[in-house]
Design a protein that fits this description.
Helix content: 40-55%
CATH class: Alpha Beta
Order of helices and strands: HHEHHEEEHEHHEHH
CATH topology: Uracil-DNA Glycosylase, subunit E
Strand order of the largest sheet: 2-1-5-6
Largest sheet: 4 strands, parallel
Number of strands: 6
CATH architecture: 3-Layer(aba) Sandwich
């Protein structure tokens, strides 16, 4: 008889995610996740925030430094850009669900600072079951991917934001999907062009909002 391979940590995360049926259960399960090594250097897991069911869901890349410390998504500088954009299209953030493709902060040291690094494809894949659980619980009608890592997690393939933004994507997942930049990219844009980048970001979110039932 051939010995069965021992389940990997990633397999265990997928099994645990399938057993999650509420946002409270998700919080507890993700806190125990060892599907990749990011938990070892993160302060805590950061799951999504918002109503248990809502028509609009936004997915970013991963928690940043402030999110990792506070345990909430989009509370740092990028979160303030997102809040400003939502205000411009008159959407109350408390009425939508906001999350990230990866639930632990991926970082590298620079002196005493923790500097964001993009999550790897393996880290995105390991964390995907938790995003699937959120989609199953929240059941959004429209899903907006903020940045390339979020789009890769949702669509299952590398995505060029400049080619994908501006039109809905039917990926057979249930919600209508839109792709736009991550708000942190606007902060990295030189001031003369930052206003243009912000207006384009707002336009993308407005297009997604127009697709709501």
């Amino acid at each position: 008889m051939t010995a069965r391979a021992k389940p990997s940590a990633e397999d265990d995360a997928e099994t645990a995610a399938r057993g999650v049926h509420s946002l409270l259960g998700l919080l507890a399960a993700v806190a125990r996740c060892r599907g990749c090594d990011l938990w070892e250097t993160a302060t805590q897991a950061v799951v999504g925030e918002g109503p248990a069911t809502t028509d609009l869901m936004l997915v970013g890349e991963q928690p940043g430094d402030q999110e990792d410390r506070q345990g909430r998504p989009f509370v740092g500088p990028a979160g303030r850009v997102l809040d400003e954009a939502l205000e411009q299209i008159e959407i109350d953030r408390s009425r939508i669900y906001v999350s990230n493709a990866v639930k632990h902060f991926a970082w590298k040291p620079r002196g005493k600072r923790r500097i964001h690094r993009p999550p790897t494809a393996d880290e995105i894949r390991a964390c995907h079951p938790w995003l699937e659980a959120e989609l199953r619980i929240v059941r959004p009608k429209v899903l907006v991917c903020l940045g390339a890592s979020a789009a890769r997690s949702v669509l299952g393939r590398p995505t060029t934001i400049s080619k994908a933004r501006g039109a809905p994507i039917d990926a057979g997942l249930g919600p209508t999907i839109f792709v736009t930049v991550h708000p942190s990219s606007i902060l990295r844009t030189d001031p003369p062009d930052r206003g243009v980048a912000m207006r384009a970001f707002v336009a993308d979110l407005r297009l997604a909002a127009a697709a709501l039932p």
